[in-house]
Amino acid sequence: MRTATHKPVLVVHGGAWAIPDEAAADHESGVRKALDAGYAVLSRGGTSVDAVEAAVTIMEDDPTFDAGRGSFLTSDGRVQLDALLMDGGRMKAGGVACVERLRNPIQAARLVLEKSPHVYFVGTGAEQFAHAHGMTLIENSELVLDRERERLTQAKQREAAGLADDTFSGLEDDKSPETAVARASEAEDFQSHDTVGAIALDIDGNLAAGTSTGGTLNKTPGRVGDSSLIGCGCYADNLSAAVSLTGWGEPIMKLVLGKWAVDRVAAGTAPELATREAMSYLYSRLGGRGGIILLGPDGRFGIAHNTPAMAWGVATENSIQTGLRL
Ligand code: ASP
Questions:
Q1: CATH code of the domain occupying 9-323
Q2: Catalytic residue flag (residue 195)
Q3: What single DSSP character describes residue 65?
Q4: What is the percent of the chain where pLDDT is above 70?
């Protein structure tokens, strides 16, 4: 019989953006279901990696979110998914990117973590690896919703009218932080960021993190964002913290913001403060917007966003809480 040394904690998010009132209930119930599934694993003594995988799987299956079925479409009308899972106790990680034929990329990431000496697979190589380890390959059309076809059409119309919401390009050449901030804020009126993530501490004191996404609306095929890149949108190490981010991927990647945040916790900053500092840094340095969840090895956690709303949830031994604002 194992003796529990830690009180389990699970924190999840389902994206950070201007979540409209009509989508609020679905976001909140989606993160709640993810919490229920993940915390059930932790309560029966399961590992943080299992809990994170379970929570993220629920949100990938929920069409509310930009992960799994119901994700945003690429500019050529397909779903391309990215996910990373990291085990901070064993310092093992598994990631997949640009997969088109897997219903649950977080489960493919788990297979990479457990069964490969490598950390990251992309495209058809990732699909074949997952298939060789028992995952079913589906048709891409099974992941595509009419709602997203309509969203893509609207995004292309805005693009044609010069109101491109994909301002990721263009900012690269602009050296003025003020201009970057202004353009980023303008773009965020249109952008939704429904990426999902979970971070957990289990009874043995092991941390894990997972992030899964369909990326950004109207992205160029082959584009990979921060979510599945180690240290950018996801990271876990028992010696620092576990983190998952959402938001505008390109600035998050350039700042390697996940690792930046966990390193602050390792240096003694409380997770709550580290999350707020990470969001300030993202905005002041590159005009980026998003949300972050962060959990230390002592069970203290932080949640922050610099967007109008963020779908979040926290489960501890004593309570389950969800919300859309902090
Ligand atoms: N960070 C994701 C990406 O850039 C998008 C999101 O969080 O919704 O791919």
A1: 3.60.20.30
A2: yes
A3: S
A4: 91
